Amino acid sequence: MAIDTLDHGFDRAEVFARIRRRTIFTIAAPVMILAYLVYTWFAFDISGILERAQPERAAILATDSVAYKVHVTKDIRRGGLEVAIEGERTATYDNANAPDWVKIDGDNAVVDLGEGYIVDIAGKTMKFTVPGYGVITATATKKGVETQLPPGDVPDWIKDDPRKFDARPTIDRRVQVTKTKIEVHNYFGGWENFWFAFNSPLHGKSFGDLVSLAMSDQRIDPDRSNLSLIVHEFLSNPDWQHGEVFTALFETVMMAVLGTLTAALVGLPLAFIAARNFTPSFVLRFGVRRLFDFLRGIDMLIWSLIFIRAFGLGPLTGALAIAFTDTGTLGKLFSEALENIDNKQVEGVRATGASQIQRYRYGVIPQILPVFVSQVLYYLESNTRSATVIGALGAGGIGLMLVETMRTSRDWENTSYIIILTILVVIVMDQMSSWLRRKLIEGK
């Protein structure tokens, strides 16, 4: 009798059926993923987004975040020529002490942008010499701007409009002409006036000069020591606002710490009520568990908006938003940890005649301490980042300052500064969390 079976008693048809099902699944899964990606491409209008993208503007903003520009400006209406860092009145050079790449002759100037790029400003006319292209002439008139370009096709880096002429042959060189002014931008790497303001008596001094000044008995300001003056001039820098930034960072960290600790201290007692092996009442357990769902079901940002309307702007709203959200999350995690403890350790403590509180202290807490510490420290680190986002909505801290610097395109170096400081704070919090975890859990 012939039986269609394999040597080990398996039905050959069943084996082939399994292979076909697995083959179909192997093919169907990538096809479904591909179909989903195609759907999202059209649903989210990816093609339109790519068409509207402005990568050149992103490159400009990236450049502004790591470099600064010096403006050479000729005011055609009132006359006069000005050289200023970022175009600021408070950071304007004296024409007699202008940078060596700017040669000023009355209301006229010759600006050497390097590598053969020369701008000659004479009266209402600007001549821009571009290596490999030629000389561009732009003259301001009562109606707008008249330009003369070298013969041939107009390159993409030139925007020749009757109302405004704009040429940017490289990312770090730019000239603009309107009927009211002629402006030249020259970019330099670094952050301008980072340590001290342009008009500060300490501006331009080297680190060695500052050390010598701090140790000197001859005071620059009779009312304070030189060391105190150095610290004051640094923190009160009006361009970078170091003092305000450090205060905002401290507020952000305090929001995260206060919110997380409040959530942990409130969530742990509620976790005992929500745990099945500690609270026999189903109604009580059900109510507390639904409370956890309610608290963590509303996003932290929504809580912050609610508290802003209730208590106004300030760090307290951010701390409350973190506390409410994390009370639900940590409470649920703690209750699950309590339900998974080993009752033998609790029974052993009970056998010694310990009271209910002592049984919790010596039989329960040591078992959930690793989970408690790990989760609290993790959420403390995570909430440091979340506090930045909450602060951007109005809760204060470094997030609010970050949004303020992003409102204008001229402050992207300040934006980079704040982002870098925020990342450093998160790194420090992560290292401190790791150290505390080792000390409290591993005993190292």
Automatic annotation (TrEMBL):
Entry membrane topology: Multi-pass membrane protein
Record has Transmembrane helix as a keyword: yes
Gene3D superfamilies: MetI-like
Pfam family, one: BPD_transp_1
Any one annotated GO CC term: plasma membrane
Keyword list, A-Z: Membrane, Transmembrane, Transmembrane helix, Transport
Keyword Transmembrane: yes
Transmembrane segments: 24-44, 253-279, 300-324, 387-403, 415-436
Compartments it resides in: Cell membrane
Residues of the ABC transmembrane type-1 domain: 249-433
Record-level Gene Ontology MF annotations: ABC-type phosphonate transporter activity
Family: Belongs to the binding-protein-dependent transport system permease family.
The protein's name in its UniProt record: Phosphonate ABC transporter, permease protein PhnE
Organism: Roseibium aggregatum
Gene from which the chain derives: phnE
